[in-house]
Predict the 3D structure of the following.
Amino acid sequence: MQNDVLLTNVRPMAGPATDVLILDGRFAAAGTAVPPGIATVDGGGAILTPGLVEAHTHLDKSLLGLPWYTNEVGPRLIDKIENERRVKVALDIDPARQSERQAILSVSHGSTHIRSHVDVDTEHGLRGIEGVMATREKLRGLIDIELVAFPQSGLMIRPGTAELMDQAMQAGAEVVGGLDPCGIDRDPKGQLDVVFGLAERYGRPVDIHLHERGEMGGFSMELIIERTAALGMQGHVTISHAFCLGMTDRTYVAELTEQLARNCIHIMTTGPSGTPCPAVKELRDAGVVVCSGSDGIRDTWGPYGNADMLERAMFVGQRNNLRRDDEMAIAFDICTHGGAEVMELEGYGLEPGSKADLVLLEGESLAEAIVTRAPRRLVMKGGKVVAERGRCIVEAP
């Protein structure tokens, strides 16, 4: 079969070199007989890992491939939100084309799964949802894309958005999103009623952007924790950014962390350079699952980003002072298994029976792979090659 292959001379998780057999798109158990005539790929001593997981991005609004955008946006969050909503049409941000460009770039860098927050608002309706869904279908077999219906412009402050969110879930979005219940909507109870109401109605997880800092963010986080516990949604709620966990009151942060762990609420951090943010080792030591993502890539919010989750592991490592090789392995785990657990992926990993979604990395160790970020030797999805030597098998539009 096309997805039967023998990988020779590969080093699973930078361990000793071995051969790895893939049958029907899944990893076979050690000692399984190798079928005669099977396709063979020489790994050249590369590190074999599961595919990287881009657990937080915005596929619908990247400016990849468009003329340079001169950013003159004000400093507030609401300035960026309102500016983006105004210029989407002027900049020809076609969600289908732009999401395809970014997703193909992700494949080339070794990501096999993406969770994308997609804007839902009363000016653009479900255009973003429809565009990213088109990309998901077009690239099916190359990368898996999960959609979060995301009320970027606010939910309660823009009447009609709640109804559009409901339509997005009916259309097939997998996750219910939210945004700063206090800071943007100024109605935390109202927003969380809608968000968790939709999650309960459709049996879907929740992923809420929480940029609110300090005690305000802590208050919103407490409300999210309360809802999670009341609805029995442990393991199905993610708080993205969670800047409040970087506040100076570490006693309060420890209390919040204990509640997050007890209710199996996950945290997404990008390892940002310019704002307080969660301390990943503290969270993981407490039992909180941590994932990461690129967030916006070359959009109207900022010019940075290249969809490389190895680079994101470096940013998480730098922000959290992860210097030892074993500490850098934590950053790598956040960008792989952490994202997989948050996205509730079945069959993720290198164990026998797991899906052969994998990447071959250059380097003697995971730490070296993160630091050098050489072009990925090989990326496979279900045992089929989807990228090689840093290039996806399909061209971006």
Q: What stands out?
A: The mean pLDDT is 97. DSSP finds eleven helices and 17 strands in the chain. The chain has two domains: 5-50+350-392, 52-342.
